[in-house]
Amino acid sequence: MDAEVIADGDHGRPIGVLLAESHDPGRERLCEAIRLDPRLELLACAPDAAAAVARALELLPDVLVLDSVLPQGALTAALEIRARLPRTHLVVTHEAAEDDLVAAITAGASAYVARADDTERLLQAVADVGAGEIVLTRAQIACLVEAVRDPARPRRRVATDPALTAREWQVGALLRDGHTRREIAEQLFLSPVTVRSHVRSIRRKLAAADEERSPIYR
What we know:
This protein has about 220 residues and is of the alpha/beta class. The chain is about 45% helix and about 15% strand.
């Protein structure tokens, strides 16, 4: 289906892209496709939301592509990026059966692309979004219009408060990679007591936002 493109500017250089994808083969395939696209520059690939936020804060990408089922919550990561890096544009990819368009747009996405679409369509969406455009299909625009007309319509709730701090995202990413608290303290130049405090805060915040996300930090 053709997408409607709402323009807001253009780019005179390759668009820096950070890809966050939980599925290993899919991540490798998309990373390679981005590398081969002359319009784009692959900055890094991340396997989960915590790593995506940490790398985004480090690399300042033009576009962050988020897999909607990332461990730790893609939409929570999207909200964090929107708050901390307002110049970074967001593309969210999703399974065909998902219906989280309103939540994704609310979290800051400029495009919501089904994984079933061909890779070229995703790359085009990334390029358009990187140029400051919003890319939505006509069906998606109709869905958003209906959501505005009927605010009581059931929809996925996106946790906006409390959000993880930048340091908590760093600690979470290292925990997810298997580092011990002592190793994290050494790497981030923190005391073990401070790391323990961050871990407790992460558990509390993620449990409040979505109980299904907290087990990775146990």
